[in-house]
User: Which sequence fits this backbone?
């Protein structure tokens, strides 16, 4: 079964034929909302809105552990994460879709592991390649089949939020090698890896990162909304493409 975690702008999947919704409890507390179980085409899908269905949970307060655990305990065997990001690299402007291949984690103070100590030997999961190659390929192939331009590979910087970055912070992220910036990519990806769940992200560039291009002197939320809404229709088609294979 395919798990989909929807981010800003994707609190619902219009093309998901919902059979039922379920409040799933976990040892880590409650997920961001009830899980929606249904089908897209021939594929069984479970959807959860990362920020809650009314977009009320900020990035640093998302219960990432509960979301990932709830998906796993519901029978999910692979996860697609949808996230909006800021573009740092000059070819990654608003409206561009990206399937990143690497992550740098700048978040702090989040519950970022299922290992709480005391219950068995410590396990260090391999995270050299943070995204699953097969799930990345599913996304990239679906984009190609339906004729959506997509950028294959980028370094995702996960920042703490909820505020946006300063221009100097973005300069620093770029010096570190980051191409995109978002607030929710971690610890989500690492938690999926800890549970052995193949995971990849489909990122939509919603705005130029702070200090870049149109955002040289600030980020316009009106512009950002204007990019998000039409783009999410494209994201839904890509997910349909993944499911229709
Ligand atoms: N920075 C961090 N997270 C984001 C941005 C940004 O510019 N845009 C969308 N998510």
Assistant:
């Amino acid at each position: 079964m395919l798990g989909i975690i929807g981010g800003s702008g994707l609190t619902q999947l219009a093309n998901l034929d919902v059979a039922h919704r379920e409040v799933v409890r976990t040892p880590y507390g409650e997920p961001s909302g009830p899980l929606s179980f249904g089908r897209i085409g021939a594929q069984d899908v479970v959807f959860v809105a990362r920020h809650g269905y009314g977009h009320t949970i900020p990035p640093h307060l998302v219960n990432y552990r509960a979301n990932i655990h709830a998906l796993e305990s519901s029978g999910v065997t692979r996860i697609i994460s949808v996230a909006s990001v800021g573009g740092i690299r000059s070819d990654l402007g608003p409206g561009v879709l990206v399937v990143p291949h690497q992550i740098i984690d700048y978040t702090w103070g989040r519950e970022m592991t299922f290992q709480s100590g005391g219950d068995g030997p410590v396990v260090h999961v391999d995270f050299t390649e943070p995204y699953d190659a097969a799930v990345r390929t599913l996304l990239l192939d679906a984009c190609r089949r339906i004729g959506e331009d997509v950028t294959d590979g980028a370094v995702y910087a996960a920042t703490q939020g909820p505020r946006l970055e300063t221009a100097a912070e973005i300069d620093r992220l770029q010096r570190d090698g980051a191409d995109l910036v978002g607030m929710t990519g971690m610890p989500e990806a690492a938690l999926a890896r800890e549970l052995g769940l193949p995971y990849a992200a489909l990122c939509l560039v919603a705005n130029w990162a702070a200090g870049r291009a149109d955002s040289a002197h600030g980020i316009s939320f009106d512009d950002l909304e204007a990019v998000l809404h039409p783009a999410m229709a494209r994201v839904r088609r890509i997910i349909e493409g993944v499911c229709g294979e």
Q: What stands out?
A: Helices lie at 64-73, 133-146, 167-176, 188-194, 221-244.
